[in-house]
Design goal:
- By secondary structure, the protein is α/β, with parallel strands linked by helices.
- The chain has a single domain, classed as Rossmann fold.
- 32% of the residues lie in helices and 22% in strands.
- The protein is built from 9 helices and 9 strands.
- The strands form 2 sheets. It has a 7-stranded mixed β-sheet with strand order 4-3-2-5-6-9-8, with helices on both faces. A two-stranded antiparallel sheet has the order 1-7.
- It is globular and about 50 Å long.
- The chain starts with a strand and ends in an 11-residue tail after the last strand.
């Protein structure tokens, strides 16, 4: 079972919006630190249409357009659009729901979804089926999720479960934020939606920046912020990475290929 991350009801307006407050240029420059940039450079189609579904401020849209890729974005947050409209004069980012994509069947050669599907309490099935629908035959899907890694299973999850228990006793209202899936759990959703998994990569930030430890251990965050670790955090990151990045990585990227159309197959979960 995936682990449920819960937040206090007062935090509802910021669910899944860690980019709020970021400077525009700084948000785009963060792509240069993210390890999946090489995967995109090597595997994204150079002569096909690409969609990022759930693009936030659109940093990957603008970063990849600068690299010559034909990519547009889709985002549902009105808070994001209040920022996007000041910069996106060409209209590369559209407003819409990733569960009901406003595009025709077979419209795109590739679809990117980064840190989006874990935020839907009903699960990722509908989003993955929509991704399948709008992709061409043999189209590529690049999807990342925060994994239920070993550090989380052994340390973070028990601590959080205890906190949720205490808050429940105190009568504090908690709401769903996101799931942390194991790779096996999420892979099952991908295959059920008509995709084959071509590769699995670590989705992290290069030092001194980091996602996994930065999110899970606030005391390892540098006073400078912006996903940067302090000296202790960097030491722990280097130690764990020398054993295996999978122990603590903040994201896992699945590279998938469309195998068959969901419109012509069983819609079972």
């Amino acid at each position: 079972m995936p682990f449920r991350i819960l937040l206090s009801a007062s935090a509802q307006d910021t669910l899944g919006q860690s980019w709020l407050g970021d400077e525009w240029d700084e948000n785009i420059r963060l792509c240069d630190y993210q390890t999946i940039r090489k995967v995109f450079s090597d595997l994204l189609p150079t002569k096909g249409k690409i969609l990022e579904a759930g693009c936030g401020l659109g940093r990957w849209v603008f970063y990849l357009r600068q690299k010559g890729f034909d990519i547009i974005g889709l985002e549902a947050s009105s808070q994001a659009f209040s920022i996007i409209r000041r910069h996106d004069r060409e209209g590369y980012i559209k407003e819409g729901d990733v569960r009901k994509l406003p595009f025709d069947d077979g419209s795109f050669h590739a679809l990117i979804s980064l840190g989006v599907m874990e935020h839907f309490e009903e699960g990722p099935g509908q989003i993955l089926r929509e991704a399948n629908r709008i992709l061409i035959k043999d189209g590529l899907l690049f999807v990342s999720i925060p994994p239920n890694n070993m550090v989380r299973r052994m340390l973070i999850n028990p601590i959080l479960s205890f906190k949720y228990f205490i808050k429940g006793i105190l009568g504090k209202k908690l709401i769903f934020s996101e799931y942390h899936y194991t790779e096996k759990e999420f892979a099952a959703y991908i295959k059920a939606a008509g995709f084959s998994i071509q590769a699995v990569s670590t989705d992290e930030l290069d030092p001194p920046k980091n996602i996994g430890l930065y999110v899970d251990f606030p005391r390892l965050q540098s006073p400078q912020g912006h996903w940067q670790l302090n000296a202790v955090g960097l030491f722990i990151n280097n130690l764990l990475t020398s054993i295996s990045p999978a122990l603590h990585r903040g994201g896992v990227l699945f590279v998938c290929r469309k195998e068959f159309s969901r419109t012509n197959s069983c819609q079972c979960e």
